[in-house]
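Model: Ready when you are.
Researcher: Fold this.
Model:
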Amino acid sequence: MLDDLRSLRQHVKATRVSYRVATLRLVREAIVARGDGYLRPHEEVALLDVDVRAALALYAAEDALPTRTQRAIPRVPSLGRGAFRRDYMYANEPVVVEDVVDGTWGFAAFAGADGGVDVAALAERFGDMPVPVRRGEARGELPFRDFAAAFREGGAYLKDWHFRLDGLGAMAPVPDLFDDDWLSGEGDVDFHFCYLGAAGTSTRLHCDVINSFSWSVNVFGWKRWRFLPAEETPLLWDAFGGDVADGFGPSTVDFPRRGRAAPVEVLQPPGSAIFVPSGWYHDVENVTDALSVNCNWVNGANCLWAPARLDDDDAADASNGDLSRDRFLAKVARAAAALIAADLDEDGAAALARAGAVARLLEDTQGDPAVAIYEAADAALREAGAPTSRAVHAACLELAADPDADVTLEDSDSESDDGFLGRVAGDLFEDDVHAKPRRQPLRRGWTPGFREQVDLGVRAFDFALENGEAVSCAIEYRDAGTGSSVWDGAVVLARYLEAHPAKVAGRRVVELGSGTGFCGLVAARLGASEVLLTDLDQCLPLIEANVARNGLRGRVAAAPLRWGEPADVSADVVLVADCLLPGCDVLFEPLCRTLAALLARGAAGYFVYEQRCMDCRPFFALLAAAGVDAAPVPDGDLHATYRAPEIHVLELRSRFCS
């Protein structure tokens, strides 16, 4: 499959700018250069005289049409793994595979008397579990039972429910055909979703995140899919090759060639899976009431589609949208390491060469980590006698110049990387000491992680103290919030307090950003006279449930507290655990303000954080400026097992005690 370049040819044709579009972009640049600087390019163009805009659209509409080669989308009763990868995955062509849903699917148990989805039974099972619901352009979260009550009203559509993050992975096992996934399951990213909508609900025209593949399984109901082959994407562009239309329809001044886009339609029956290739724009309609599960995924067959759609790191952290280059490259590195460790067959060599080619494409922005990946990949490929990533990268460049060129994969690279591999050895894919801190927390086994909560359904964290007491916390894994799990830093702080119980015994304790309430509950077990667990309003139900779970009502209370706002709270001890998180530096200043105010009243603070991929120095500079001294707790005072170089425990004191 290494020399199968059909997918790469599609990618080039889907993104290649024609001479006419390039000319129109120059026209737009000239228009924008004369503008007032406050409008986006398409807004500047919209101010032009209608006759001028019509002339631009006419010029764009005369661009040559792509050649249609796509046949009807096949629907097959079964498909072997090898045939799927050869004929559809590497070819980047859609297919419907029937009879995928079997007795291992938990969702399949919710069948009504008519064989369709039993929404009432689902509501009884999932009750108050919050799920994402969309009505037209409005979106938000509702308890499942409230969504079910409005199921046939106003076009309510349950979309993008991260059911695995609610510990429900067993409800929809990944079909074997689609298990080669480099994207999901590494703690911070999960692209498995559940959809539930009445007949007539739909998803508008779109292309999947970072040009990923998608598989979608209809557990119940029928769907109508309309696809545009990837190489015909330019038909959906505006005159300047920038914006893409959000629906099929007639040509307009804004989208002058849209009317020539002829979608390929297929009906997907219940129990079947549809494979959605990279870069194929599509819209979807529920022909009947339908419950489906889908997943966006990337592997060696389509990884070269992703770099053009990756956000830069800052944008990704701010938007929680597409993966950043940094995070994507880390996933490519993990996949490459696994392939290198295995015996490379033809399929594995193809994936490894493409992984290396991705690293070459990202070398300009990612530097040495990218170089390490492609050099290691190429060394393994040369040893296996297979073309290297350099050959794939060269083919990409050749196809970019002429997508119909007769390209073969040939290596001009004869140098050996044995010395490089010998130097880095087993540390190749570990973080360099001079690089940014790890993006992913280390898995130490102290607390339930992503796999335990998502795939194994672990819903509680039980913590035994050496005095015979225990704390039990219900936990959740919600994509929208980290506060519903217990993290390793909290365990380190709890064990420290256990070793020094006098720090909380008989004292009034306040915990900021409590999440599950774990550290405050431990303080109560260690003899704190009063404990107040604080967090945002949406976190309080879980905290209050954990207070009741531990039989501590009366001595432990929960209350809302938004950092930075005045709070009528006093305490002898303030606890803060795992509240410095990547992408959340906007919270540094309000957290500092609240901490400083509490400590200025004479309280002692105990603060724990894990150094991840963020710079925490600005936070501690703010603390110092607010008169707070932060003294590291010596390793010798921490538990011999429950401590780590990345986890820091600090004792905080105010210089301005009243």
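Researcher: Now this one.
Model:
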Amino acid sequence: MIQIRLAVSALLLAACGSAAFAADCGGNNQKPCTISEATKVGQKLSVCPKGSFFDPIDGGTCWECPEHNNRTAYHVKSDKACVRPSYEKFKKADKKRKNSRVGQGCPKGQFWDVKGGDGLLGACYDCDDYNRTAYPVDHDRSCVKRVKEDLNSAKLVASLSCPDGSFFDPIDGGTCWKCPKDYSRSATHVKSKDACVAAPFAGLGAAFGACDPGYLNIRGTCRKQGDCGKNGERPCLLGERIPSCDDGLKENFQQNVCVPLAPGELPFFAGLASLADYYGDGIVLACRQALGPLNLKSDTDLAVGANCSKNVVAGAACELLADKMGRGTAKTVSMVLKVPATAAKFDSEVDKAFKKDCAGFQENLTKAKNHGAAKTFMTCGEGQFWDFNGNCYSCPKGHNRTMYPVDTDKACVDTVGGNLVRSACSVYKATDNMFVQSNKCTIQVLRNGEFLSEPLDLSGADREVCMAAGELSYGVYDLIKTASSSPDAVGVQLETKLSQFISVAKKASKYASVAVKAGTVAEKGKKFKDMMECR
């Protein structure tokens, strides 16, 4: 199964797929590199070409306006960067006809002139939408009109900044330099051995260093990409391969190695140790956060609505998942884990769901989009992230960054924590199939008010209240077997579990007045037989 190693992913993110130039580092089984020399790209332009103008944008650029245009005060990249001022436009008048008699005149919109006709009869002319000037009628400027100013775009001619992926240094009259891929400029002299660093944290140790192309930084050592997953090899990283270990193997998180499954051990439960290492005591909360938003169908009709029914099952499932991961060492182990036949059936149901119904929650990987060089160090636009090659990237909507090299097709993942979701879903399916009656009974007892100050109807209750009811249901299952032999002890535990449920329920205004029904602990223990019979 997929093993989540998010605890180390922040360290490894800086170490993927870079070129190493320092000696004795970056190769197979070598320490990662953290420093390198810079390479000179060339001389930097200092003057704009004749006929163009300078703008400080993009590190210094040269632009030109169309002919007869002047620069405006608008942004150089706007469509109003240049203006052609208002001017007079001339043309020659159009002769329409010769007049044939004295006093004939001209049609509306035309004008008469003695030139161009027979003798003094003259001719008719037209300037269209122009106006008549004082020039002779047969002159090229006999008509004129005023043209309004016209705003236009400027054209980029040259850049005074260094090429993409390089940086400027004033040395040697102004020069451009570049660092190796995935390295960034340090604060030292540009011609020094440590002009570039593999990360801003280079002095913090090999965990932040960079490896040669095709190698990954695994806990401070460069390892060949893809050499993973087999017996005795390291588990594959998230984004390198799914699952992290080959069939028949499980991941030993603490030793970071793939080892064989024990006889009869199922892959799902073999991987719970890794989840426990990461989530610890927060596993119940993490499980609830994972299952809460999922649209999982419950086959159990608890008469409280589909959503609440699903959340009741989810609450019980998360309690059971925590016990299965070892939480039971601090208390009496739950009965589902203590009865061999029941535990074996539950294990089988979980493993079946893990392989089939819940398999869709595994991570899917894709490329990141390159938005070009960051304008300032480590600063990118909204929704983007900075990489050590100096560029800004973004993952598709709904995806997050993996620790895989940013220029691969595995740079982004759609379900970070998918392993927990898949695990929680599997336990949910098994719980829904096997513990229908326990959940029904708990809802029934809450509804009839047997142990509460008032009947409690969970129809329309929110997610937190319904999940708390599921946790109560799981707790009730634990108490069933000891109810007849030790009613006082059961009464104490039942009152505690009821109080825990009520503390959640009272946060909702509709249940603000509910409380545990008054009475002795012993009486509650005796009444617990009602729940035994319900089950």
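Researcher: Key takeaway?
Model: Confidence is low (pLDDT under 50) at residues 1-22, 200-207, 328-333.
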